[in-house]
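Quick one: structure for this chain?
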Amino acid sequence: MKFPPQNKTFGITPYFLFFTIILFFKVVLIFFYGNATPYWDQWNGELGALYLPWLNGTLRLSDLLATHNEHRIFTMRVLSLGLLVINNSIWNPLLEMYVNAFIHTIALTFLLYCLNQCIDYRHRKYSLLFSMALLLIPFGWENTLAGFQSQFYLLLLFSLIFLWTISCEKLYSLRWWIGIFAGVLCPLSLASGALTLFIGALVVLIRKYFFQETSEKSLFVVAIALFLLGVTALFYTPNISYHDSLKAHTLTQFLKALLTVCAWPMSNGFWAMIIQAPILILTYLFFTSADWRSRQSYLYFISVGGWVFSQYISIAYGRYSGTLSSRYLDLFAIGLIANFCIFFIFFNKRLCQKRKFIKAALFIWLTLVGFGLSQRLPVILDDLNNKKELSMQQEKNVRAYLCTGKITNLINKPFQHIPYPDAYYLRSMLDNPKIKGILPGNIYMGNSSLKINSDGTPYCDLNSLDTPFIFLDKKLVSNEGLATYPKNISDGWGGQDYFKSDLPGVKVVGSFVTSDGDIGIVKFALKKGDQILYRSGPRTTRQVILIDGGLQKFLTILPQSTEWSTLNFSNPSLPEKFEVMLIDAGTGWGEWIAVGFKEK
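Got it. Here's what it folds into:
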């Protein structure tokens, strides 16, 4: 096919610079916020379903093709197993993150190169600059900081290759067949990859009926084959009953969620039509005017737009209650990039004379996108800090268990203070000798690169691994067994909990006075075995407890507990009497803490 005229000065260098800058930023983000402790689905979906059978010598092709929730993550499993082998059979989620960053950046660079084939060479730098500015905002941090998320990036890469070849490459050439193979891998990466095949079938029919390829009768067969492959993939996608609560159950819910994702980064679905206006207008012109079909490469824009919209539909239906979760935003960003580039198609004087109007529309569109992203930036930064603190707490608890073998390091912990929701399943994995031998060095001493003394320090320094209290998730609140309100308490808070709880026989001391931004310190004395009530806001990233017990000191991040719970100070390492300092240094939304004592 023919591309618009190329300018020799706009060669490969700008794309290489784009690739380098984005990859460098991702590497820096992983360096500062990443943690090698395996997280959540990695323990069952990666370790239990992949590595354990491989270690036992029982891994079969059916295991690689097996479902994980709704998805067949064959490509992710092959990649993960390859990385394990390459890394001397040591499981390293940080290595997975770096490889995922490379895959994602390759996919983005490929996308921009393909989109730029439709844009005048004078405007191509703008697509790179906009994309760079957009992607330097870590809205997709969940994918970046998780080794288990490569399936999102593999789906993106395979889909973009498939859509380019199916739209623009010579029929039945080697590149065309490579693209078909990439398309087949899409439903083997994520369940929504089946929708990629449907978009491919539509593109093939468009080529047959709009681009002088009507003599190719086999194209109809190809379209039918892609459609049937997509149907087959959907047919074999299991329904996960415990995910039903996440889905849209009414047409109203679905449409509301769809408008929300189409409007991203704006938070109100009202803006969806404006954010998506460029691709909608181009699609209309493409199908209604032969002049707009003069360049077949425009079909790639249509196919990318259709693919992004299919992902919108999938997420709006399947994840109604979490449509704007960070893990999905890397997919949504593709829509923003495509829509931005379409403005520069409209700037072509041969196709449109209303350049002033288009400039004004571009200004409004950029203003909305910039405003939406700026509103989300503070939340993203808070989420990154929270992720880092939780990862450190998970590492600490898992390492403590592996050093001591005490189940108390895994049970009765606040939500996400261990890296898997089932403490006993996690223990069964950690106790397996074969699994223990491949665990990352940050949690298993045998694979650590640190110089370790005969007593296990500094790796198994129990003073640094211990938590001074046992966290008890207690719903029924009373003053029974509570420590009495201390005589010499130093109350630097002067407030209560956010809900101003009125508990019979309980004296509440909290950091919430007028807003979440209130800060301060409370000091009081306790004895070993004492317990107090405890409650926090939805965020506890800068709320800590400091205990000075003479030879033994503790500095621990306080757990998240949006209901009243109990802190039992029965750690054997505590002295008989000690001073407790509770520090609330958080000024963000949802950052407050409160404690309760028995009234005198």
